[in-house]
Amino acid sequence: MKRVSYDRKSGLGAAAAFVLGVALAAAPGAVQAQTCSGTGSPVLPARAFADVVVSYAPVVINDDPRVQFRDPQTALGPDDYAGDAQCANGCKSVSLGSGGVLTLRFADNVLRGDGTASCDLWIYEVGGNVEATFVDISKDGQTWYSVGETSGYTKGIDIDAYGFGPQDQFAYVRITDDLNQGSSSGYSDGADIDAVAAVTSVETCSITSVTPAARVRAGDVVTILGSGFAAGTTVLFGATPASAVTIVSSQEVRATVPTQSLQGSNSITLTIPGGLPCTLPGAVVGTLRQSWGSLKSLYR
C-alpha cells in the first residue's frame, strides 16, 4: 500500500487551533486504522511501552478536562488503568480534550513492522467512553506518517498495512483526539490515554554523555551515560573495540580506551545483544600516549 506522509505541524485539531490562536494546516480525512487480528490487550514487557513525553497540548474548555486528568506522565510505561474513572487512587491516564494532542517517544526500543498482518502498535485508550484518535508515527519527530484512526484498547494497529516492514524503525507516536467523535465536555473530556506500546519492536539504546571527552589516551576509562544498556553490551571507539567494558547499570557503562592510539575526533558506538546500535559522533578526542623517552627527546 502506498505510504502517506505529511506533517500536521503540531498535530492540533481545529478546536485546538482556535483555543491557542495558531493557524494550522487542515488534517486529512479520517481513515480507519488497519487493525490487527486478535482482541484484548496484549501482555507485553515493560520495555515495549513509550518512555518519554515529547509534547502535550490538551484542549481545555471550561476547565475540562480537569487538571487531575492533565498529567501526560501517566501515559508512560505499562498499562495500569483499573477502571478508576474518578481517580480516587490517582489518575492512571491522561485526557486530551476535544482535538488535543499527545506525542510520545520510545527511548529503549523502536517500533517496526513484522511483515505480517499481526499487531505492531497498541494505543490504550481507556475510560467509560470509547473515544477515537488519529494515530501518526515518525522516525525522527519531523516527518509523520498516518496509520489511520482507532479507538478503545481491544485492538491494535498493523503498520505493515501502510507499506512499512521490519526495515522501518519508528521512535515517535503522535495521538490526536478526533473532535468530531465522542463527548465534547466532561471532567475527562477527549480520548484518555493510559499507555502506548510497540508490540513489534527491537531494543535499542541512547547515549547522552561521555566523560572524559578530550585528550583521551589508550588505557583511560571513560564513563558513558544514557539508557537501554544491558549485560553483553559492546563498545566501539571509532571502529576499534574497547579493551574492557563494565555495565554499571541500564544507564551507565564504563569502557577502557583500546591500546591502539586514538587520534582526532572519534565516535562511540554501543550495541546491546539482539538490539540496534546507538552512536554518539565525535564523542571523544584522542591524543597519543607518549613514553618518557620520547618526551625527553623533544628537549635535546
Can you put this structure into words, describing what you see?
This protein folds into 2 domains: 5-202, Jelly Rolls, CATH 2.60.120; 206-293, Sandwich (Immunoglobulin-like), CATH 2.60.40. The protein has helices at 14-20, 292-297, and strands at 5-6, 52-57, 94-95, 101-105, 109-111, 121-125, 132-138, 144-151, 172-177, 192-198, 201-203, 206-211, 221-227, 234-237, 240-241, 244-249, 252-256, 264-271, 277-286. It has a 6-stranded antiparallel β-sheet, with no helix packed on it. It has a 4-stranded antiparallel β-sheet with strand order 12-13-17-16, with no helix packed on it. It has a 4-stranded antiparallel β-sheet with strand order 15-14-18-19, with no helix packed on it. Helix content is 4%, strand content 34%. With 300 residues, the chain is mainly beta.
End-to-end separation in angstroms reads: 74 Å
- Overall mean pLDDT score? 81
CATH topology grouping of the largest domain: Jelly Rolls
**By helix and strand content, what is the structural category?**
mainly beta
Q: Estimate what percentage of residues fall within beta strands.
A: 25-35%
Sheet with the most strands: spatial strand order = 1-8-7-9-4-2
Number of domains: 2
Short description:
By secondary structure, this protein is mainly beta. It contains two helices and 19 strands.
Topology:
Blueprint: E1 5-6, H1 14-20, E2 52-57, E3 94-95, E4 101-105, E5 109-111, E6 121-125, E7 132-138, E8 144-151, E9 172-177, E10 192-198, E11 201-203, E12 206-211, E13 221-227, E14 234-237, E15 240-241, E16 244-249, E17 252-256, E18 264-271, E19 277-286, H2 292-297
Antiparallel strand pairs: 1-8, 2-4, 3-10, 4-9, 5-11, 6-10, 7-8, 7-9, 12-13, 13-17, 14-15, 14-18, 16-17, 18-19
